[in-house]
Amino acid sequence: MHKLLQDNAGETLMLLGNEAIARGAVEAGLAFAATYPGTPSSEISANFFQMAKQSDLYFEYSTNEKVALEVTAAAANSGVRSMCIMKHVGMNVAADAMMTLAYVGVKAGLVILCADDPYMFSSQNEQDNRYYGKLSGLPILEPSSVDEVRQIMPYAFELSETLQEPVIVRTTTRINHSTGPVLLGEIIPPKTKGNFVKDPFHLVTVPAVSRNLHVRLLKRLDQAEVLSCESKYNFIHGKGPWGIVVNGVSYNYVADAVRDLGIEDQTRIFRVGFSHPMPGEKLKAFLQGCEKVLVVEEGEPYMEETIRALAQEAGLILPIGGKAPQLFSRLFEYDPAMVREKIAAWFDVALEPAVPLDLSDVPEIPQRPPNLCAGCSHRATFYAVNKATEGMATVKPNDIGCYTLGFMPPLSAGDFLICMGSSVGTGCGFSQVLDDKVISYIGDSTFFHSGIPGLINAVFNNHDMTLVILDNHTTAMTGHQPHPGVDMSNLGQEGYGRVSIESLVKGIGVPHVSVIRPYNVKKSVAALKEAIAFEGVSVVIAQQDCVLQARSLKKETGRPFRVDPQKCANHRNCINDLACPAFYMENDRVCIDASICTGCSVCAQVCPENAIVPVKEKK
Amino acid sequence: MDVTRLIIVAVGGQGNLLASRVLGEAARRSQVPVRMSEIHGMAQRGGVVESALVFGDAQSPIISDGEADILVGFEPAESLRALKKCNADTTVIINTAALQPFTAAIGKGVYPDLDDIQRLIASKCARLISLDAAALARKAGNVLSVNMVLLGALSATNLIPLNEQSLKDAIGAVTRQAFAETNLKAFELGRKAATA
Question: Which residue of A has its CA nearest to B105?
């Protein structure tokens, strides 16, 4: 049985933050969950996907976060405890549904788990989603550790039911991807079948209904603020005149720093774990006992703004530090030494700074940037597009996925990128105002997520652009989750439908559609030339399994190739145009590492001397 | 309990996360407080994987620059890159088997000289233990046991609050049963190499 489904309350397990979240939800009697995969939240859903096969839990990978929230909203309004999982930018997609769902509310608990990513370890921005609590009027809970996130999940479901509102649990990468001992609690058996009570004058948001619902939402917010003040997740410890207000993972850095600096007796710490609405009255009382306050929060000055306002309301004049050039930054994530240093500076405590190593004599170390895998079919597709557009002025918007890595030279497959699905929409705009030929790239999962509306727009407005759909039959970037185009029977999964990208694109009315197998370079270039020459919307679907997934599914990959030194004239087209990581240089000649080569044969087709040949022996 | 801070750096695929899981499991079994965090975002695509393990009475799951007590580097150049995490009292354990980054492999960037890497680390930190973990893993019977060799070497330093037996038990519990024997052998070879 899945380790998180076992009825072993009282035991301690070492869990990843994302596993602890999944476990906490199961303990709360979670019955229904949906997501679109996104790091740092991916492992939560990966665990639900596995658990769903062994329990009554319903789990789905939805086409995008908005759809995921809509399906969970329906389940929760039918009385079934539900959860919707996303990364921070996913909440932008879900926001349309979320803003009005806040008016409608829920009948059974609904938790929206949102994983923010300070420092952008795997993201395109580092937006602070606490403002979504303010924007929507929904409560936010923010745990500080792996163990606490397990505890806070059942509380979140209860809070959601008390307030009849979805509750946002906001984590950051350092909670999601931390591991620690987690004390397991009892599992409440889930209630999987719902019961929908029709009540259109509260559930159908026409203006006359919504006017009442907005009034009700504000009343619930008042109630939520009382609960925030009472919540055990907003706690104070210590007694001194120096106040520190802190949330999330930074709480650990503050706790360590206060001990390291030996200022426990002078310091009182307010840990905010229920951060929307902020616990106003409790904070005012806290400020009253402080001579000086420091707010420690990654991201935006969300708490700091509130605390300054609360101090004004309470008629308090005291120094409040937070974001400032000499204090904390709005950029990136914090770390223990930095927090210690800022605390010491603000409260004027002596700090013996660690002596950093002198690294001035360390030579430059070659970078190790992530790269498209050896044998990745996207490399072949990008190469073929580059060949098909030689000498042409082009703009190539790219999208979110592994293939974004193609923006690096020599493939240079990416000129513009803002969000999921943007390659298609921005492609429309570029094609209208530029004379350059526009070729947009999008992955299969991203296409389903939010590429389709852009493509419909291109067809309707007759934009002159080519969309290349990089179809590797999976969501590769986040760890091979399925999407509506995946043949689930190949993964040994029953009961799923399947959407053909080709039929869908034709059904939208795209006038020029072709399908290529990118490992066949010559045919691919010819098909691309034709598509790019077409005036109007053309779509090229490049179909080839993700090599990483093919390998993990034990699908046959080709035999490796080698460079025949007799034939090689050292043109290096292979390295200069393809740059597959299986290549390396030895004595100024290109060689192929047979242990990495997957035998895709693309480099063999690119070599002008036919000097790249299969290795005789099979791997 | 005193705080011990350990950084592990590796290239994706070298088994850093599994090694961290072994340490975490051993700590759980020994009731040693531990917090761990990892950065593994794009590791499958050739990137670097970094784990931080904090043993003892601290709450932070990450380690600031200059504050690691021990650095275990699964790859020499990545060990050198991670040196900013170390200080003059740090013990560094490195695998001397290099994995050229692709940039260096195709002649765009120079991989630092192995002797220079070792000389630089040794000159700046309290102690350097170098071993060819790849060769020892092969000797143990599985080239993929590099991580277990390095765990063995780490165990031999007695710098982490986990005894040899608890690590061996954790290896048995966490790693695949089919590899248990070679993993334990790799662990032993690592221990010996580090004490030699």
Answer: A584
Q: Which residues contact A545 (CB under 8 A, 6 or more apart)?
A: A377, A472, A473, A474, A555
Q: What is the spatial distance between Cα A585 and Cα B102, in angstroms, rounded to a whole number?
A: 10
8-state DSSP, A323: B
pLDDT of residue A250: 98
Query: Is residue A408 located within the same domain as residue A470?
Result: yes
Rounded Cα–Cα distance for residues A35 and A112 (Å): 10
Domain boundary residue, one of A504, A535, A553:
A553
Domains: count for chain A: 4
How is residue A281 written in tokens?
């009255």
Is residue A47 within 8 A of residue A2, CB to CB? The reply is yes
Q: What span, in angstroms and rounded, lies between the C-alpha atoms of B49 and A424?
A: 33
Are A399 and A338 members of one domain? no
Q: Which of B6, B59, B80, B108 is the best substitution to test chain A (most A C-beta atoms within 10 A)?
A: B59
Helix or strand (DSSP H, E) at A480: none
Tell me, yes or no, whether A325 and A410 share the same domain.
no
Question: Same structural domain for residues A576 and A609?
Answer: yes
Nearest of A579, A604, A593, A521 to residue A371 by alpha carbon: A579
Same domain, A225 and A285: no
d(CA A62, CA A139): 24
Q: Which residues sit opposite B39 in a β-bridge?
A: B50
CATH number at residue A582: 3.30.70.20
Axis crossing angle, helix B16-30 with helix B146-156, rounded to the nearest 10? 40
> Torsions phi, psi of A61, nearest 5?
-85, 110
Q: Decide if the complex's ipTM is over 0.90.
A: yes
Q: What is the mean pLDDT of chain A?
A: 96
Write down the pLDDT at residue A552.
Answer: 85
Kindly tell me the burial class for residue A588, based on how many C-beta atoms sit within 10 Å of its own C-beta (0-12, 13-18, 19 or more). Answer: exposed
A584 contact residues in B (CB cutoff 8 A)? 100, 105-106
The tokens describing A612, both together, are 């790249």
The pairing of strands A437-443 and A465-471 is parallel
Cβ-based contacts of A181 with chain B (< 8 Å): 27-28, 33-34
Cα gap A427→A537, rounded to integer Å: 11
Measured from the Cβ of residue A529, the count of other Cβ atoms closer than 10 Å reads: 17
The rounded distance, in Å, linking the Cα atoms of A571 and A610 is 12
Secondary structure element (H or E) that encloses residue A470, with its range = strand A465-471
Summarised one tens digit per residue, pLDDT across range B87-119 is: 999 999 999 999 999 888 888 889 999 999 999
* Residues in chain B closer than 8 A to A366 (CB atoms): 77, 100-101, 103-104, 108-111
Cα A80 from chain centroid? 26
List pLDDT tens digits, range B40-87.
656 567 788 999 999 999 999 999 999 999 999 999 999 999 999 999
DSSP one-letter string for A143-198: -SSHHHHHHHHHHHHHHHHHHTS-EEEEEEHHHHTEEEEEE--PPPPP-----PPP
Give the CA-trace dihedral at A151, A154, A158, A161, to 10 degrees. Answer: 140
A442 beta partners: A469
Instruction: Identify the band that residue B28 occupies on the pLDDT scale cut at 50, 70 and 90.
Output: very high
Residue the block writes with tokens 């993700």: A546
* Domain assignment of residue A300, given as a range: 236-347
Residue A619 has pLDDT above 50, yes or no: no
Collapsing DSSP to helix, strand or coil, A592 comes out as: strand
Helices (H), A448-520: 452-460, 501-508
Mutate to test the interface with A, among B102, B108, B125, B174 (most CBs of A within 10 A): B102
Closest residue in chain B to residue A17, using alpha carbons only: B37
Instruction: Report CA-CA distances (Å) from B162 to A241, A375, A490, B33.
Output: 40, 42, 44, 11
CA neighbor of A100 nearest in space, from A274, A197, A217: A217
- Structurally, chain B folds into a number of domains equal to 1
- Containing structural domain, residue B51: 4-195
Q: Which of A178, A200, A230 is the last residue of a domain?
A: A230
